[in-house]
Specification:
about 400 residues; Aspartate Aminotransferase, domain 1; 7-stranded mixed β-sheet; globular; binds pyridoxal-5'-phosphate
């Protein structure tokens, strides 16, 4: 009675189809059959948040001064900890008052930043395969995404020379992501310098997603985009405590960089949200000030897992480059398979969940992604199972 057809806004109707639906259904069916699933599809650390961070939260949560609305930009003490961490980790100077912003997880900042800079029809340059939030955020702001394909022949980095002049001229914002999800590829300073030159020439705001900067192997520390000369004039960098400190559920991240870009994002946020619970920011200070003590052990665990999974897959004849950072293996599917059919094969035949590469955008077709967020015993078992059935 009184009902009427509820219609979704165009921005919702235009959302890309959910490519993982078929896989989810297959997974549910396998679980219902009692299959012992090995889930290599999850991009969420399996280990708990380190105890000192939890202890700091407990104390801070009991303090009534944290029970009211936090400040919009984040506590100055948290932003100062970010600035300290940046200086120490990357040698980059950032003013806590104007060049750092607390975020409710980096996804929140990535999702909101186009609203500050993109008008209807503006072009946003988006790497693909990539984090699905980049094109969706562009589209929600009324922008048009232009795909920068990440191809093997370019080392899975965007080829700036392949972007047509007309597109570069219309582009207002570019998303980048290193270490990369899903390919795990790390960009070097030479690449970042070319990005700065390109952005300066075409007046493009660069938004670099560095969520995985602290998950690295063999002691090879990824660099920051902001280390490149001139980067502070064109861009900002997103970081997250999620992957670095096993804090995905806590919802805290931050952006650092050009003060006008930071201010633009801050304007959007102050009109839409009310910041991060201050007790969580207090805990974040403990995390950032921990001087690698809390992260070194995690890196070791991921590296051990990598050293089980990658050689195991290579011995089976699968083609992949060992990741030097992040926690993903980006694997070429064997001849005769597509991303989807190989994912289905692994799930149906041996109960292993992986993610089809095309779920991260069309240029991801021909690949699957496996994650290192599972114990090395389970990873070894996954290799054994695949060996038994082959493909
Ligand atoms: C996990 C992830 C993030 C971090 O998300 P949070 O909102 O900070 O938890 C950002 N970018 C990429 C590419 C990711 O995979």
């Amino acid at each position: 009675m009184g009902g009427f057809p509820i219609t979704y806004a165009e921005r919702i109707q235009k959302l890309p189809p959910y490519l993982f639906a078929a896989i989810d259904e297959m997974k549910q069916k396998a679980m219902a059959r009692g299959v012992d699933i090995i889930n290599l599809g999850i991009g969420d650390p399996d280990l708990p948040t380190p105890a000192p961070i939890i202890d700091r939260l407990k104390k801070a949560a009991a303090d009534p001064k944290h029970h009211q609305y936090p400040s919009y930009d984040g506590m100055l003490s948290f932003r100062t900890a970010v600035s300290r961490w940046y200086k120490k980790r990357f040698g980059v100077t950032a003013d806590p008052a104007t060049e750092v912003l607390t975020l409710i997880g980096s996804k929140e900042g990535i999702g909101h930043v186009p609203l500050a800079f993109i008008d209807s029809g503006d072009v946003v340059l988006v790497p693909s395969p990539g984090y699905p939030v980049y094109p969706v955020a562009a589209s929600f702001a009324g922008g048009t995404s232009y795909t920068m394909p990440l191809l093997k022949q370019n080392g899975f980095l965007p080829d700036l020379n392949a972007i047509p002049k007309g597109i570069a001229q219309r582009a207002k914002l570019m998303f980048l992501n290193s270490p990369n999800n899903p390919t795990s590829v790390v960009a070097d300073q030479e690449f970042f310098s070319r990005v700065v030159a390109f952005a300066q020439e075409h007046h493009i705001i660069v938004c670099h997603d560095a969520a995985y900067s602290e998950i690295y192997f063999d002691g090879k520390r990824p660099t920051s985009f902001l280390e490149a000369e001139g980067a502070m004039t064109v861009g900002i960098e997103f970081h997250s405590l999620s992957k670095t400190f096993n804090m995905t559920g806590w919802r805290i991240g931050f952006a650092v960089g050009n003060r006008e870009i930071i201010a633009g994002l801050g304007k959007v946020k102050s009109n839409l949200d009310s910041g991060v619970f201050q007790a969580v920011q207090e805990a974040g200070i403990t995390a950032l000030d921990s001087d690698d003590q809390l992260t070194e052990g995690l890196r070791k665990i991921y590296q051990e897992r990598r050293d089980v999974l990658v050689p195991g897959l290579q011995a089976l004849g699968l083609e992949l480059d060992p990741p030097t950072a992040a926690f993903y293996a980006w694997i070429t599917v064997p001849k005769g398979y597509t991303s989807t059919s190989f994912t289905a094969h692994l799930l149906e035949k041996v109960g292993i969940v992986t993610t089809p590469g095309n779920g991260f955008g069309d240029p991801g077709e021909g690949y699957i992604r496996m994650t290192l967020t599972t114990s090395k015993e389970r990873l070894a078992e996954a290799i054994e199972r695949i060996q038994k059935v082959g493909w």
